[in-house]
Structures are given as C-alpha cells and as structure tokens.
Amino acid sequence: MTGTEDIVLDIRNLRKTYHLRRGGQRHELRAVDDISLAVQAGETLGIVGESGCGKSSLARAVMGLTRANGGEVIYNGADLLTLTRRNLARARLRIRMVFQDPYASLDPRRSVRDSVAEAGDIHGIFESRKQRTRLVGEALDRVGLGAHFADRFPHELSGGQRQRVGIARAILPEPELVIADEPVSALDVSIQAQVLNLMAELKTRLGLTLLFISHDLGVVTKISDRVAVLYMGRIVEIAPARALFRDPRHPYSELLISAIPRPDPTNRITGAIEPDEPPSRFARIAGCPFHDRCPRRTELCAANAPDLREVEPGRLVSCHHA
C-alpha cells in the first residue's frame, strides 16, 4: 500500500438514500450506507456485490449524477459534493465514467466522432477541427477500432464495438481516474475478455487509476489489485484480490466465491453457504445485515452491527467472528 499522499479518490462516510412509496407507505432505502474507501494512484479497486447492493448508486453519487445525502468525496483536495456546477464539470474531465449498457449510453443521433469528442467540445479543449479529428482518431485507435469508425453511428456497431466507443469517450481528454460501472455485463463472454484486456492495457499505457464495478467476482478478481465487497449498501470486506479469492474472511464473500462456475463441480468451498434471497432493503436491521443468512451468527450479530476493522495488514472485515 502507498501513503496517503498517493490517494487519488478519498470517499468518506458517503450516504445515498432514496424515499419510495410502497403499499401506500413511505419507505427509506439506504442504497449507500456510510461507505468509506480510499483509491490509491495507479491501482484498480474492484467493487463487487449482488444486484441491488448499491454498487451503481455509489458510482453515480461519486460522479455527482445523483445527489448524495451525506459524506465527502475528496479529489485533489476538494470535496466533489460541495463544488459548484462549473467546478464539478471541470473535475469530471479528470474523472470519467464507462457505463454499463453500451446501447443506452450512446446517443443514436450522434456519430461516433461527435460522441467521443463531446467532453472536449463542451470544455473547448480542441484548438481546431483538424486537432479534434486527430485526437478522436487516436482515441479510437487506442481502443482497437481505428479512425475509420468515426463516421459511423451506434446502430452500425456491435455491442463490443459500442462499449469500445464508450471507453474511447472516457479517455478523451486523458483522465486520471476512470469509474467503470459493470462495463462488460451486457457483452458476450468472449467480448468480455477482449474489453477487460483492453482496459488493463489502457490502464498501463495511460497511467490510469480504475474503480471497477461488477456483480461478478471472477471478473473483478481478474482485473483488480484490491476488492471491496458490498452487501446491502455497506462494505463487508476489503482485501487484495488474490487473497480474497483464495481465503475470504466474511461469510458473504464466501458465498460470492462459491457461486463462481468451476470446471469441476466437486471443487467448491468447503462449508459454502447456500444461495438465498437477501432481506428486504426497506427493513431496518439493528445488527449485522447478513446475520439472517450467516451460519456463524450469534446473538451478538443480531443485536449489534460490526465495524469494518483491520484483521491483518491490508484486509478489513465487517464481522464479529472474522
């Protein structure tokens, strides 16, 4: 681990709550529940958890696409949550996002050239039309498409090609941090591997820092240096990727790893928890949010929520019995 001076993004006690009506009653849903994370320069930090655990809400709150209810998101010494709209837009030139759905994230009326150049057009970074054309072509070359794709429209592209356009848009102008929200979940398996390899290559070539979000722990482990496991809006474990995959310490991490398909069906984690439905997100849980599904649960788990504590260097676990 590097020192605090190498932290690119420092998320502190971030909260995002939605108020919904269900069955004629008003409910509070804590999508992001007091999350703190530090993203180190040059690393890939994976965020993993089952659908509905708050991964995308976390990404959108960090980017300011939805308004957080509390906490801080510190980037370059400034809290992104308190910046003016103009200053936030400038910060977003250095923090870019790749969205989950390559079909929905591109405007069907805009050419590839105009989509990739959009941020540069808004902020006036191009000195001439010739420079704009050249930089867009270079970005498309970097993602393996080529400048000849610039005149095409989204309906003329495959899903993998559209996601490559989304990545090209995220790296022009060159960012410092890229947040990738489920960037391969909508793609075929073979295309997933190509996009993952592309992102790893761009990270090395451009010196990027990645916040990589996925529900698939196998995908996250393959590309990440560290992994944070989310459950019901809370972090339950943070660990180096290989260590987490080899020796998960939180029961929920064990559940995720046991669900990864294996060539040998007899090769499963001993004592793995059987998959089950999580409790309602509208329920207010006093203790550990995982205790209803946990084989290690005790009365302490039902009464008190565990803190996220360091159990060994570089590994934090939110479990009374870790």
In words, what does this structure look like?
There is one protein chain. The protein has 322 residues and is of the alpha/beta class. The protein folds into two domains: 4-94 and 176-187 and 203-277, Rossmann fold (3-Layer(aba) Sandwich), CATH 3.40.50; 105-174, no CATH class. Helix content is 30%, strand content 25%. It contains eleven helices and twelve strands. It has helices at residues 55-63, 85-91, 112-116, 118-123, 129-142, 159-170, 189-206, 217-223, 241-246, 251-258, 299-303; strands at 7-22, 25-40, 44-48, 70-75, 78-79, 95-98, 177-181, 209-214, 226-231, 234-240, 309-312, 315-317. Helix 5 (129-142) packs across helix 6 and helix 6 runs parallel beside helix 7 (189-206). The longest helix has 18 residues, at 189-206. It starts with 6 loop residues before the first strand and ends in a 5-residue tail after the last strand. The model has no long low-confidence stretch (mean pLDDT 88).
